[in-house]
Amino acid sequence: MLMAATLGAVLAGCAVAPPPNGSAPAPAPAAAAPAYVSGAPDTTDSVPGSANALYVFRFKQTDPASSQFNYRDRYLSFYFRPSPTALYFRVENLQGRPVQLDWEHSIFYDVNGRSGRIAHGPTRWKDRTAPLVYTLISGGQQFGDYMFPMDYLVDPGAAADPNSQPHLPLVAEDASAPTFSGQTFGVDFAFVIEDRPRVYPFRFQIASVIPR
Q1: Residue at 17 is within a domain
Q2: Looking at the domain assignment, is residue 11 inside a domain?
Q3: Among residues 109, 149, 179, 206, which one has the fewest Cβ atoms lying within 10 Å of its Cβ?
Q4: Would you say 92 and 138 are in contact if contact means Cβ atoms under 8 Å apart?
Q5: Residue 114 falls inside a structural domain
């Protein structure tokens, strides 16, 4: 009986003994961050970007230059909020007559130097080849939305929510983030004002990329 008890204790001790080298098992690797985002939820934080991002991006508006990310003429007033996910904006019609935001003739320029059509809040994968509908802004009214390149849209797949909007971010917040420092992106915003087309070019630069 004593021998059996002793043998049991030895076996139990072997079961919890550390590995021969004395080190703990390596932790499982962290799951890779997804290469795309869904939609573009806005944030009121002072620093735009994901809370768990490895890096923080700081942007500046270079053309027309503005430390407040705004621009105003006799027709329209603009305010922008660049983020790694999308370019947020608000535009106010300063006139008494309606103006049209012409999405179809607006152009987005990404950080890689490519240009193309713009996707915004209502745009989904199924809409990528269809003409985009004008946005009408009545006199004295404001309109806010976000935008990113149409080519950044990702097919959500047949099983996904048809209202989802997966797309690539404007810039990645992973280990590749520092490579975007100094890069520029922007938009040529097309409007129809007093029955005449008018284009507003805006450009932004990634001023710095800082480890969080």
Answers
A1: no
A2: no
A3: 179
A4: no
A5: yes
| Identity of the amino acid at 107 | I
Q: Tokens 């520029």 correspond to what residue?
A: 184
- HSE-up of 102 (CA within 13 Å, CB side)? 15
Q: What is the pLDDT of residues 71-95, one digit of tens each?
A: 999 999 999 999 999 999 999 999 9
Q: What is the mean pLDDT of the chain?
A: 83
DSSP string for residues in 136-194:
EE-TT-EEEEEEEEGGGB----TTS-TT--EE--SS--STTGGGGTT-EEEEEEEEEET
| CA 156 from centre of chain | 17
| Domain total in the chain | 1
Cα 77 to Cα 192: distance, rounded to the nearest angstrom:
15
In the three-class reduction of DSSP (H, G, I as helix; E, B as strand; rest coil), residue 201 is classed as strand
Per-residue pLDDT of 108-145, as tens digits, reads 999 999 999 999 999 999 999 999 999 999 999 999 99
